[in-house]
């Protein structure tokens, strides 16, 4: 499963790392957009296979933030 950005913004904080087990609805990334912090949640439980962004990166809506298996 791919976790994607639901809006354009800057990656303010990455809350999980490669290999970490996560649960459904867990915050995994916080984006900053228009001076607001927007948490991005995992839709399903699983293990983080790949983190595709780092703090400070700019992302567009629909960009893949991480892959969970």
UniProtKB/TrEMBL annotation:
SUPFAM superfamilies: Single hybrid motif (SSF51230). Its EC number is 6.4.1.2. InterPro entries: Biotin_Carboxyl_Carrier/Decarb (IPR050709), Biotin_lipoyl (IPR000089), Single_hybrid_motif (IPR011053). Residues 1-69 form the Lipoyl-binding domain. One of its GO terms (molecular function) is acetyl-CoA carboxylase activity. It is an enzyme of class 6 (ligase). Keywords: Biotin, Ligase. Transmembrane segments: none annotated. Pfam families: Biotin_lipoyl. PANTHER family: OXALOACETATE DECARBOXYLASE ALPHA CHAIN (PTHR45266). This is Acetyl-CoA carboxylase.
């Amino acid at each position: 499963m791919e976790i994607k950005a639901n809006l354009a913004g800057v990656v303010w904080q990455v809350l999980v790392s490669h290999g970490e087990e996560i649960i459904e609805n867990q915050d995994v990334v916080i984006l900053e957009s228009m001076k607001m912090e927007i948490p991005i949640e995992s839709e399903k439980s699983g293990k983080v296979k790949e983190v595709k962004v780092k703090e400070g990166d700019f992302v567009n809506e629909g960009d893949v933030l991480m892959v969970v298996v």
